[in-house]
Amino acid sequence: MACFEPKLFVISGPSGVGKGTLVARVRESLPSLGLTVSATTRNPREGEIDGVSYHFMSHDEFMRRVEAGEFVEWAHVHGNCYGTLRSEVDRNLKAGSSLILEIDVQGAFQVRESIPEAVLVFIMPPSLDVLRERLSKRGTETPQSLELRLANAERELAFADRYDEVVINDDLDRACAELLTIIENHERN
Ligand code: 5GP
Known about the structure:
By secondary structure, this protein is an alpha/beta fold. The protein has seven helices and nine strands, in the order βαβββαββαβαβααβα. Guanosine-5'-monophosphate (5GP) binds at residues 12, 15, 38, 42, 73, 75, 77-78, 82-84, 103-104, 106-107.
């Protein structure tokens, strides 16, 4: 008989690939699915709320908490520090449901080291040209940070084949359905 087992899912993919939108859509279908709020040293974008979008903190505070062992994983990404606080994972796991960490490739492999049963899912753009177009349209980046994010995207794509699952975000509805199936299949195993 199939039974439900809560799992930790790590979602990675280049900036602008649509991870946030995909995860938000999946959580509409699976409201019990937890999502950790990451910590970052980057400045908030317009509309972002501290404690909801991210835990925004200074570089000094971030490093103090790294030293104190408060992070499950952390990494330098696009010139800033990002990390997952242990307290965020614990808070979600206590709820007894599966959990999503939306983090970069360096963080993903740190999680795999400490939690080998974590399921790593890579979200791919249909092409780098499409990624450039989506990032430009989003309008959140300066020309310089856009180029940095695209250069990093090429580097990150090379890691896709080390993930347990790969989803191509060519069409939001299709990719969302695929991600939902992946989550449900792993929870049943
Ligand atoms: P953004 O600045 O666009 O919000 O995020 C940039 C990148 O940081 C994302 O593509 C995401 O993969 C990565 N990121 C966000 N939160 C975390 C985290 O907690 N840990 C790690 N390692 N990367 C993160």
